[in-house]
Structure formats: structure tokens, C-alpha cells
Amino acid sequence: MTHPCLTCGACCASFRVDFSVHESQEQGGSVPSGLSEEVTDYTCRMRGTDWAKPRCAALIGKVGEKASCGIYEWRPSPCREFAAGSDACNRVRRRNGMTALESGLL
């Protein structure tokens, strides 16, 4: 069975993704250079997530059909901490025409 996140991508096209500058490659972290921008001396933001209709620069594919993170191994902490099947996940899935996930089944 394919993990539901691999056909979703709604979280990557719904939220602003801010994280510590220490997670960027420039500061010794793992988030690739060029996919984020420094917002303050302490905060970086994934490119594309601050638009009126967000879409993370690392998102590959089409939301709701086939979607994946192009930097999955190096994604920032907010993405690592986002839980499939959480209230926030299910809210953006429904907003994009998908059914909610049951968190206990993942």
C-alpha cells in the first residue's frame, strides 16, 4: 500500500514553513541552499510558502495525485514534525478535495 502522503502534498501547498537559520546548509544544517530564504537573523523560510497560494519550492508533483518532497531527507523541522492524520493534515486534505486520514492507521 502506498503511503497516503505520496499522493497528497496538501501540507506542502498550504502552510508557511519557517525554521531556524541553523537548519540551513549555510549555517551547517541540512536544508539545501537556494530553497529557503533568510527572513530574520534567526529565521529562514522555505521558498514559495509565503505566497497567497503557498507551494513549497521542494514539492514535486501534483497535490492530490502524486506528490513528494524533493528534499525529504533534508527537510526542515516543521516538515519533520508535521503529523500525517493530525487535525491540521486532515483540514488541508479536505480543503484540497481529499478524505481525512485516521492517524491510528499510519
Overview features:
106 residues, alpha+beta, 5 strands, 17% strand
3D structure, described in words:
It is elongated and about 40 Å long. The protein has 106 residues and is of the alpha+beta class. The strands form 2 sheets. Strands 1-3-2 form a 3-stranded antiparallel sheet, with no helix packed on it. A hairpin with a 4-residue loop joins strand 2 and strand 3 (43-46). The protein has 2 helices and 5 strands. It has one domain.
Question: What layout of secondary structure does this protein have?
Answer:
Blueprint: E1 18-20, E2 36-38, E3 43-46, E4 59-62, E5 66-69, H1 77-81, H2 87-95
Antiparallel strand pairs: 1-3, 2-3, 4-5
By secondary-structure content and strand pairing, the structural class works out as: alpha+beta
How many alpha or pi helices?
Answer: 2
Mean of the pLDDT scores? 94
Kindly state the percentage of residues in helix: 10-25%
Low-confidence stretches are: none
**Overall tally of domains:** 1
| Proportion in β-strands | 15-25%
Termini distance?
11 Å
Q: Quick one: overall form?
A: elongated
Largest sheet: 3 strands, antiparallel
Radius of gyration (CA) equals 14 Å
Q: Give the neighbour order of strands across the main sheet.
A: 1-3-2
Strand tally = 5
H/E order of the elements? EEEEEHH
Q: What would you say about this model in short?
A:
The chain is α+β, with helices and mostly antiparallel strands and 106 residues long. The chain contains 2 helices and 5 strands, in the order E-E-E-E-E-H-H. The mean pLDDT is 94.
